[in-house]
Amino acid sequence: MDTLYTIITYSENYAGILNQITAVFTRRQVNIESLNVCSSSTPGVHKYTITCYCDEETVQLITKQIEKKIDVLQARYYTSDQIFIQEVALFKLSTPKLLEQPDISLTIRQHSAKIVEVNETYSIVNFTGLPEDIDSLYTSLNTFDCVIQFVRCGAIAVTKTRRELLDEYLEKINNL
Fold first, then answer.
1. Cα 10 to the chain's mean position, in Å?
2. Cα–Cα nearest to 35, from 44, 43, 26, 47
3. pLDDT (tens digit, 0 to 9) for every residue of the chain, 176 residues total?
């Protein structure tokens, strides 16, 4: 049975590295569930947060292959109990249906989501949470047939370790 793994990769900011990283998944025929790339807290270093379903042997191979890329500083994989993970979702809802059915507003409040825009045609709801919480809100809102559009970002994650492994690695190579 496949497990959801999150691979966190750090690299220098060079064109083409994302293509090299995603090619590793393609060669192993593993589908990327979500992908988020952003600057990290270390200047000049980018962080890639990639989620995928596979077995542990496959995620180990993928991580090792990614780490072999010349511009990659570090790649590590994690299970959901080793990281804190969040996603952001936007829901575009029908305002007429929102006004007609008070249970829609109640559902939004019960999920601690926020209505951030309202006009006569549509309303925008913003929700940040765990992937399964976003799925739950989507399923609940979909029962009211009020969802016009739905989009979510790739997962963002930080490790639960007390130390920053990238900082330790960079310090080690700078001392060589």
1. 15
2. 47
3. 789 999 999 998 888 899 999 999 999 999 999 999 998 888 888 999 999 999 999 999 999 999 999 889 999 999 989 999 999 999 999 999 999 999 999 999 999 999 999 999 999 999 999 989 999 999 999 999 999 999 999 888 888 877 666 666 666 666 66
Q: How far is CA 44 from CA 11, 14, 158, 166, in A?
A: 9, 10, 18, 13
Q: How is residue 167 written in tokens?
A: 């900082």
Range of the domain at 131: 85-152
Same domain? 47 vs 99: no
Residue at 63 is within a domain:
yes
Query: Tokens 């090619």 correspond to what residue?
Result: 23
Q: How far does CA 11 lie from the centroid of its chain?
A: 18
| 78, 97, 115 - which closes a domain | 78
Same domain? For 56 and 117 the reply is no
